[in-house]
Design goal:
single chain; 422 residues; 74% helix
Length: 422
């Protein structure tokens, strides 16, 4: 084991086959989350037509998902302390998400539709927390930044999910047939995680005396700064993913097989952002990258608000994604340096801000839309994208946050070892 979380990558022992298998399993878990999320949200126009509901009902469902996801992440923190660690959290969450997708798809009445989204919220919180716990732990073992790559897997699967919805809508395949296919894929990935992910990354590891003193209380000032960035990002992300398809269909009169492309290009450009994010941080540092991200996101959302054609709005969503795609992974990466010995607790608490942002992005935008139009609703994420620029200095946390040689500045609660704890 190592006593310092700033050891360069070259000082780390060789990676084992189990390390690599765990990384693949966790990447697939991120993908399963993105696939289910995109499949459900891109299907919202179809749900509205099928159940005869309006934006207010969708807003209510989103509110429930956000509240129950926050409950799910609290449960995740406690379950992760057990023998199964975050692997148990992740498997449980994926199974819950799969059940929720089936309930939503087969719902014979709108009441079952809401029940399904409630179940989904519980699973969402567990999967979000479990994937980030596993990812940060693996990053410690790898000795270099890999968290952004996991989020790229989420984005890639999100693109596939949105395109899948566009395809089944184009060919008039019933949701009752199309969506359970996504649930089956999520269950298969849950089995992969059960077999290959780390059983626990909560085993004790050596920390310095300074780190041990810092671990006595959580660094709330740092958590709150990063949490504000998480809220701002997830307001934008939820507004774009939840209401983007509806905006194109209802405000700009895009066809149902065209409307999902707003979400598809948004997630697709977040994929590009996340694939290049680690290199950008090494080259220019986290603060500069976050400033650029906020600027691009602001420009993209301005185009969305001003758009009078589906093409311009889709281009705006694309620019938003390529700018802001790195914000969430860099928030969790910076959080890992705040309290190395209690990284799981820090991640779980930071993850709670995710749902505050999701609720604001889904509910506030929807409420404004119900009272006026979604065009005005998107002014909220536009303003918060600009706020991210102001929060950029808060990402200067730990060694390696600036340009230059990369150091491991995002330690987790894991033992530094050559293989997973099994």
């Amino acid at each position: 084991m190592t006593s310092s979380h700033t050891a360069p990558h070259s000082d780390h022992p060789p990676l084992s086959t189990r390390d690599r298998r765990a990384r693949i399993a966790v990447a697939f878990a991120f993908g399963a989350q993105g696939l289910a999320y995109a499949g459900l949200l891109s299907s919202l126009p179809g749900f509205k037509d099928r159940f005869g509901i309006g934006d207010d009902a969708v807003t209510f469902a989103i509110l429930g998902v956000g509240i129950l996801a926050a409950v799910g992440t609290i449960v995740a923190e406690r379950v992760a302390r057990g023998a199964g660690g975050s692997r148990t959290v992740l498997v449980s969450g994926l199974v819950t998400v799969a059940i929720a997708v089936v309930v939503i798809a087969l719902a014979p009445h709108v009441a079952f539709f809401f029940v399904g989204f409630a179940i989904y919220g519980l699973g969402l919180g567990q999967v979000d927390a479990g994937t980030n716990m596993q990812a940060v732990s693996l990053q410690r073992t790898y000795g270099r930044s890999i968290v952004t790559g996991f989020y790229a897997a989420w984005s890639a699967a999100g693109v596939l999910g949105a395109l899948y919805v566009s395809a089944y809508a184009h060919y008039d395949v019933p949701q009752q047939v199309a969506l359970p296919v996504l649930a089956l894929l999520v269950l298969v990935i849950a089995g992969l995680v059960l077999q290959s992910a780390w059983r626990s990354h909560d085993a004790p590891f050596e920390v310095s005396a300074e780190e041990a003193r810092a671990a006595r209380s959580l660094p709330w000032s740092g958590i709150l700064i990063l949490g504000a960035a998480v809220v701002a990002y997830y307001v934008v992300d939820t507004a774009s993913s939840t209401w983007g398809t509806v905006y194109l269909a209802d405000v700009l009169d895009a066809r149902h097989d065209v409307a999902p492309f707003g979400y598809a290009v948004y997630v697709g450009t977040t994929l590009v952002s996340r694939l290049t994010g680690d290199f950008a941080v090494r080259r220019w540092g986290r603060v500069a990258v976050i400033r650029a991200a906020g600027l691009l996101g602001t420009m993209g959302l301005l185009a969305v608000v001003l758009a009078h054609s589906a093409a311009l709005a889709i281009a705006g969503f694309a620019l938003t994604g390529i700018g802001l795609g790195v914000v969430a992974p860099l928030c969790f990466a910076a959080a890992g340096a705040l309290s190395p010995a209690h990284a799981n607790a820090v991640i779980a608490r930071l993850n709670s801000f995710n749902y505050l942002g999701a609720i604001l992005g889904g509910v506030l935008v929807g409420a404004i839309a119900s009272g006026s139009t979604l065009r005005f609703g998107f002014v909220v994420p536009l303003v918060l994208a600009a706020v991210i620029i102001l929060l950029a200095p808060g990402f200067a946390v730990g060694p390696g946050h600036g340009p230059g040689p990369e150091l491991l500045d995002e330690p987790a609660d894991a033992a530094h070892h050559s293989g997973p704890v099994v």
